[in-house]
Design brief:
By secondary structure, the protein is an alpha/beta fold. About 30% of the residues lie in helices and about 25% in strands. The strands form eight sheets. It has an eight-stranded antiparallel β-sheet with strand order 1-2-20-21-23-24-19-18, with no helix packed on it. The relative contact order is 0.11. Bound molecules: p-coumaroyl-CoA. Keywords: ATP-binding, Ligase, Membrane, Nucleotide-binding, Transmembrane, Transmembrane helix.
């Protein structure tokens, strides 16, 4: 059904022939213009209301019964086959929390910077930091030293924890730093040693409360520069409760999960560093994403469930064949988030893996993770373009960009969300917070969407100026400021260019100084030297002037059209 047909059906249904706005749409209230979750709170999903509850206490309280915790495996490192049981994990968390509090004097509100790829220690560090009421600020280890210094400064970090190979990037910040594991040639204090030496019984009794800040994760939001998203313990406890409910709805309690999604982003943090421990499942960790290592791990550990991103789903389609290779029969479910999954990739995946359920979800750092869910594979299969229905406790509005009015089903507008998982705001940035969360608590997502009459959400475009490369955010404004720092670049604009493998790549339009002789390669190398690899400019066009509005705003859509035309003319 087309949008137009659906819309006229919805109007017909709403008016009931009388022209009155009486909606039959199950999730949409025509009077308030609000879409509600069709999943009722209460019954099987209930948020803990005790104010004096923190994320770590909540997660640890959900662990399997002590009789089972000694044998039930929480984590497996696929590279070493090293295993961590739930009982080990609990002891490590309490032991490290005791050391952070008594030994290092880490207190409530102190910001702890974490720079590490996924590892068996990552969840322990997160939970121990939460236990003492400190604020976790994780970062991508691929970030450059200057990107890291910026986050350290902005977050006000008092202590850092670093993988040994990344330590050199933290030294210039002057922040006291612990390494996760100690290399033989170095005498830094390590988390591993603290865990071994700590006494789990000395865990601090003064715990943070639900309204305290738990973490600050960096995201570009709907505009430009990276900002610290302030998430409270209540946000995390709510998302854990929803995740637990989701796993129950999907009957995934006995699944073995594969993790390569980075835990320094909300997707990995919420799923793998915290949420799945509330369910008692086993997670196999890939230290780094690699398609062959992923296929080996699926076969070796009988992986059944993979939270993924679109490029990985494409990778699975392209790198496996029916007749040869790995036994992937254990796979039951793959979910896709962080970037739009094209209908073509979804269909190719379903054809190649007919026994595997594929479900798309939608979430943001600002909502502490997933906002939507598909209840069943049949629902998802019938709607390959949809990201699912609102999760319990979520409300949405679809707001007309011109008029600000709330729109009914099948009308496209900006998605606004409200739920107990919505962030407190951006750290030290009241202006950005006010521009993103209104007085009533509605969060503007910067995504263009519509709902159908059954309450399924379809994200159709991005209003916010963000490029999504491999599921990572790339902010054009950040790259433009790097480009403008080049002495031979007079003006620059960065736009997304569609790319089959990675979703989108950043392309720069550059106005170069007369007779500068600057080449595409020069520009690419100049940017690559200053930003994390996923932010690299991968294509350059030279132009005489950057198109701008009367107010000086870059007309990116015009440049996108220009790049598409250029590409088509080359075919
Ligand atoms: C697994 C991916 C898809 C691919 O990994 P990869 O192949 O290793 O590629 P990378 O992008 O990590 O980096 C590779 C690049 O880094 C370089 N590199 C490699 N290690 C090095 C090195 N140590 N030194 C320096 N260079 C190096 C490497 O050379 C290479 O450079 P280049 O070839 O130029 O791209 C990876 O990109 C990835 O994990 N992406 C996911 C990002 C992600 O989690 N985003 C979520 C954001 S939060 C969000 O949106 C939440 C949504 C959500 C939605 C729904 C829900 O239900 C819940 C949540």
């Amino acid at each position: 059904m087309s949008i137009e047909e659906g819309w006229s059906n919805a109007i017909e249904e709403q008016s009931g022939g009388s022209g009155q706005a009486l909606t039959k749409t199950p999730s949409f209230c025509a009077r308030t213009g609000v879409y509600h979750s069709l999943h009722q709170l209460g019954g099987d999903v209930e948020f803990p209301t005790r104010p004096d509850l923190d994320t770590a206490t909540f997660v640890l309280s959900q662990f399997p019964h002590p009789d089972q915790a000694e044998s039930r495996v929480a984590l497996i490192d696929s590279a070493t086959n090293c295993r961590v049981t739930y009982a080990d994990l609990k002891r490590s968390v309490n032991s490290l929390a005791a050391c952070l509090y008594h030994g290092l004097g880490v207190r409530k509100g102190d910001v702890v910077f974490l720079l590490s790829p996924n590892s068996l220690l990552y969840p322990t560090i997160c939970l121990a930091v939460f236990s003492v009421g400190a604020v976790l600020t994780p970062a991508n280890p691929l970030n450059t030293a200057s990107e890291i210094a910026k986050q350290v400064r902005d977050s006000g970090a008092k202590l850092a924890i670093s993988a040994p190979e990344e330590l050199h990037k933290l030294v210039p910040t002057g922040v006291p730093t612990l390494v996760t594991t100690r290399l033989s040639n170095d005498n830094s204090l390590s988390i591993e040693e603290l865990i071994e030496g700590g006494d789990p019984l000395e865990v601090p009794q003064a715990r943070p409360t639900q309204s305290d800040i738990a973490a600050v994760l960096y995201s570009s939001g709907t505009t430009g520069a990276s900002k610290g998203v302030v998430l409270t313990h209540a946000n995390f406890i709510s998302i854990m409760t929803l995740l637990k409910w989701t796993v129950n709805v999907w009957s995934s309690q006995d699944d073995v999960f594969l993790c390569f999604i980075p835990m320094f982003h909300i997707y990995g943090l919420a799923f793998f560093a915290l949420g799945l421990f509330c369910v008692g499942t086993t997670t196999v960790l890939l230290p780094k994403f690699d398609i062959q290592a992923m296929l080996d791990a699926i076969q070796m550990h009988n992986i059944s469930n993979i939270p993924a991103v679109p490029p990985v789903i494409l990778g699975l389609v392209k790198n496996t064949s029916k007749s040869t290779g790995h036994d992937l029969s254990s796979l039951r479910r793959i979910s896709s988030g962080a970037a739009p999954l094209s209908k073509e990739i979804a269909e190719a995946f379903r054809e190649r893996f007919p026994w595997v359920e594929l479900r798309q979800g939608y979430g943001l750092t600002e909502t502490c993770g997933a906002a939507t869910i598909f209840d069943s594979n049949a629902q998802a299969k019938a709607r390959p373009d949809s990201s699912g229905m609102l999760s319990p406790s979520f409300c949405a509005k679809v707001v007309d960009i011109e008029t600000g009015l709330s729109l009914p089903p099948y009308r496209k507008g900006e998605l606004w969300l409200k739920s107990p998982t919505v962030m407190k705001g951006y750290l030290g940035n009241d202006e950005a917070t006010a521009a993103t969360i209104d007085q009533e608590g509605w969060l503007r997502t910067g995504d263009l969407c519509y709902f159908d009459e059954e309450g399924f959400l379809y994200i159709v475009d991005r209003i916010k100026e963000l490029i999504k490369h491999n599921g990572y955010q790339v902010a054009p404004a950040e790259l433009e400021s790097v480009l403008l720092s080049h002495p031979h670049i007079l003006d620059a604009a960065v736009i997304p260019v569609e790319d089959e493998e990675s979703g989108q790549i950043p392309m720069a339009y550059v106005v170069r100084a007369t007779d500068s002789g600057l080449t595409e390669d020069d520009v690419i190398k100049f940017v690559a030297g200053q930003v994390a690899p996923y932010k690299k400019v991968r294509k350059v066009g030279f132009i005489s002037v950057i198109p701008k509005s009367a107010a000086g705003k870059i007309l990116r859509k015009q440049l996108v059209a220009q790049s598409q035309q250029h590409f088509l003319s080359k075919l």
